[in-house]
Amino acid sequence: MNDRFNGSATGRCCGLVFLAAALLLLGLFLLLPAPHHLALAQGPTHGVLLLQTPTPTCRSYNDQAVAFTFCDAAHDDVADEYASPLKNVRTDGLIPPVILKAIGWYESSDSPRGGWTQCVNGVPYTSTDGCAWGLMQIRSGMNCDAPANQFNAETQQRVKYDYRYNIAMGAFMLKRWKWDEHQTAGHIIGDGDPRIAEHWYYAVWAYNEWSFKNSPNNTARNPCSNWPISPVGCAYQDTVWWWAAHPPTRGGRTLWAPVNLTCPDKSLFPRYSWQWDSWNWRIADPLPVHQDWCRNCLPLVLKNYPPCARPIQNGNFEARSAYWTLGGLTIISLNRPHGGSYSAWLGGYDNANDTLYQTITIPSTGPTGRPVVSARLTYYWYMTTEETSPSTDFDYLYVQIRGSPIRTVETLTNRSVKDTWAFSSFDVSEFIGQTVQVYFRATTEATLPTSFFVDDVGLYACEGG
Length: 465
Ligand SMILES: [Ca+2]
Ligand SMILES: [Ca+2]
Fold this sequence. Notes:
The protein is of the alpha+beta class. It is built from 9 helices and 16 strands. It folds into 2 domains: 21-278, no CATH class; 309-463, Galactose-binding domain-like (Jelly Rolls, Sandwich), CATH 2.60.120.
């Protein structure tokens, strides 16, 4: 884990890149902290200190526990286990778990135990410079960071000794510091939907170092397309992609199901370092893309991440009304986007009857030629209303798949959760192979209007794992 996003090439190096040998030797002596109990034993007041500060112990773990924790952290289920401010490691719950699993393996793979290592013989695993800690090699906020940036003592101790907290912290940094910052900076792949694993290429790049060092065109690196044999020498994020596709086996168990994450075309990235600052980082989806729904699949280590087709075009409305049919007074508006600049706005006035739909074919064959076995419709919606009744529905948004049959997957009203974006997701596998309309219709009655905003509409037609 490296520095916070800063867009420069001056970041510190990750736990996997060794310093020069001389610095390394020096660093071992100067920087590697002595085990806590040893330091205490050398102090003149060691008996008193020992009572006040018991030697921390590494929380026990095994690969199964770690695998579950990656899923928990990816879906934001770890934070609540800790008191404030330790609990402030939230991720929005939208990280593809395979990304975290592969990062965690790579980051700690130089340990004597191999990857997924938090502690060795009861002592937290650190980088050779003593600055990056544990399974996710957390460096920012720890002992070598600028004092003003360091976490408090309790947080640092958790990062060092508690594998669940360490993974949650890595997930937090990947989402909050890397993904969010790059989305804001316009470094976006496809439509920027975080549920697509391939969209995390920049965030994973930045987890190590957002610099030309990790450009697949850096001649000091092997390009991603040349890595079927070995990841050695590849850019950081390409190596993580390699691990995702080549899960390690330990104790007779393959630690996760392989995911052949698609590498972006390397011609889309800077060839020379001088191109870095003016580069256009917005690129189309590398196809096929992959998603996962970790919550629904147990056991987690056997989870498959099948390739999916995404037949909906312009689901984020950033190309305005392209591909969509608007009826009534539906508009594509700058008023309230969930992502990007635009969303669809239905209702917002009295006696509305507004419609919005796109006709798509949900394919029966997926991107790699195997049968599609599941289809899922997802979207974000936002309701705001002048209605105040706690008991009566007056204004409606119907969400339908208009195939054979017509199915209303969700009905939202003036009594639904309001003034916030909400996420909806429905299995629509019964429509595989059909040409259907993904259909939104809002109606309001004669007074006190309700607005419904819709954004980031996706339909994932996925092959079997
Ligand atoms: Ca949008
Ligand atoms: Ca009304």
